[in-house]
Amino acid sequence: MRARDMIAAGTPVIELTIGEHDIRTDPRILDEMHRRAKAGHTGYASVPGTKALRDAVAARVTARTGVPTTRDNVVVTPGGQAGLFAAHTAVLDPGDTGLFIDPYYTTYPGTVRGVGAKPRAIKARPRHGFQPQAADIAAQADGARSLLINSPNNPTGVVYTPETMQSIARTCADHDLWLVSDEVYDTQIWNGTHLSAWQLEETRNRTLVVNSMSKSFAMTGSRIGWILGPEHVIAHLIDLSTHTTYGVPGYIQDAALFALQAGEQLEADIAAPFRRRRAMAVELLAHTNAAKSAPCDGAMYLMLDIRATGLSGEGFANRLLDQERIAVMPGESFGEAAAGHVRVAMTVADEMFAEALGRIIHFAEALTPRGP
Question: What are the GO BP annotations of this UniProt entry (predicted)?
Answer without folding.
Answer: amino acid metabolic process
